[in-house]
Amino acid sequence: MTYHAKYIPFESVLRAQRGAISDPAEQAYSLDSVVYRAPDGGLLDVAHDLEALGEKSGAQWRDLFDARMGARNYPDRSGVWGKREWVLPDIKDEHILTLGEGWTQLLRAPGLEKALGLKNVHVKQCGHTHTGSFKDWGMTVLVSQVNRMRALGVPIAAVGCASTGDTSAALSAYAALGGIPSIVFLPRGRISIAQLVQPIANGSLVLSLDTDFDGCMALIREVVDAFPIYLANSMNSLRLEGQKTVAIEIAQQLDWEVPEWVVVPGGNLGNVYALYKGFAMMRDLGLTDRLPRLVVAQAQAANPLYRAFKAGFEHYAPVKAEKTIASAIQIGDPVSIHRAIHALEKTNGIVQEASEAELMEACARADRAGLFTCPHTGVALAALHKLAASGVIGRDDRVVVVSTAHGLKFTDSKVAYHRGELSFPSGLANTPIDVAADLGAVMDVLRTRIPT
User: Fold this and answer.
1) CB–CB of 34/230 below 8 Å?
2) In angstroms, rounded to a whole number, what is the distance separating the alpha carbons of residues 330 and 359?
3) Is the peptide bond before 432 cis (omega within 30 degrees of 0)?
4) E-assigned strands of 203-252?
5) Could you report the average pLDDT of every consecutive run of 10 residues in the chain (452 residues)?
6) Is the distance from CB of 276 to CB of 347 less than 8 angstroms?
7) C-beta of residue 343 within 8 angstroms of C-beta of residue 273
8) Is the dihedral of CA 191, 192, 193, 199 positive or negative?
9) Alpha-carbon distance 87 to 237, whole Å?
10) CA 219 to chain centre
């Protein structure tokens, strides 16, 4: 069976959901086209041939995906490319650029469950991948498609992105793997050293700009219109095709059961729609029987979706994002705002926010339970704490928290927390104790600190 995919206007998705008749003049685009927006300026979506995919039963798809789960060879060994019929069905193996993304752990943390008063919490470790963030899941798809397009003779000189750190790391790694030049626009002084060094090490042309992420994004949108750079930000819906496999992987790891809740940090908001799309495809093709409720967690300093949610989604306005420790989601005008609202409406979802103190305390609680969380995951965990405390999320509900990056990328914030150097008290601060290299002195500390 041959499967195909194409770009369609996202507005077409919304009309189809409302039961509107398709417009025969509605334009579709090949995935080999350099196109990011519909003629009306709206976003595009990758549409798959669900009728053809539906010729396999849900059980057959589950069996196929499970069989690839333990594959020894690439691309099947990749958690993304093991679902390639649902991702980029037309691509050849020779054009796929993979760094082993996907198949990250879905962890239970009993200590965290106890702290939250819940019985069934899982943390999906999306940051335990090659460049240390969930962006790898989408970037393997986008850069592989660029690799295919360049082989077909499409004039693409480089791939480029605006980034708060993680996108640039993923882009630079996959571009380097394929020998494709890459360019990244970074907001000067607003990302961690660990994030800055990744695109530098992978050979990207790094432009450090005196603006925030929204300013970087506005500038690169102008640049790609004037120079043959292929845009790698989540405005480009190819990335979401890889990121939606996180949802499929979660279901697989739960023996094809869907959790009651999935909690995800929200910045540019493409990941929210990607998760919805993955869960919706599984339901529509018979692999699962329902959707989870989505919770989007935003930093209080950058919370346009939260404000829109509180207004019943009747009004949305960008905000000026203030500085937050959760720097990767310090975005005041998210590209995928309408995609995210659609996902929340279809899943009866919720938006919650977290202050700087709340997100760092949530990180510290999780770390005490054996995890090592990034501040963006801290935002999600803080939202979960609030919803559990208020009874919105029930004690027996199964919850999956999407952890978006590795904590080692954000050690500066952890060091500042445990040193008590932040603008709020560190309730779980744990500082090293200076002690003489003497048995008696060490024993004195142990007697006071370790119960026997």
Assistant:
1) yes
2) 14
3) no
4) 205-209, 229-231
5) 92 77 71 93 94 97 94 92 97 96 94 95 97 96 98 97 89 98 91 86 94 90 93 91 98 98 96 97 98 98 97 93 93 93 97 98 96 97 98 98 95 95 96 96 96 90
6) yes
7) yes
8) negative
9) 11
10) 23
Q: Is 160 helix (H, G, I), strand (E, B) or coil?
A: strand
**Residue 32 corresponds to which tokens in the numbers above?**
């080999």
Q: Which helix (H) or strand (E) holds 124?
A: strand 121-125
Measured torsion, CA atoms of residues 371, 377, 381, 382, in degrees rounded to the nearest 10: 130
**List of domains in the chain:** 106-132+240-419 (3.40.50.1100)
Q: How far apart are CA 295 and CA 262, in angstroms?
A: 6
Whole-angstrom distance, CA of residue 30 vs CA of residue 72: 32
For the chain, the C-alpha Rg in angstroms (whole number) is 22
User: Which amino acid type is present at position 290?
Assistant: R
Distance CA 298, CA 164 (A): 15
- Between CA 257 and CA 236 the distance in angstroms is 30
**Torsional sign, CA 339, 102, 287, 395:** negative
Would the pTM of this model clear 0.90, i.e. be above it?
A: yes
Token pair 């009866």: residue: 348
Query: What does the longest C-alpha to C-alpha distance in the chain come to?
Result: 85
| Tokens encoding 404 | 């978006």
Rounded-to-integer distance, Cα 244 and Cα 276, Å: 7
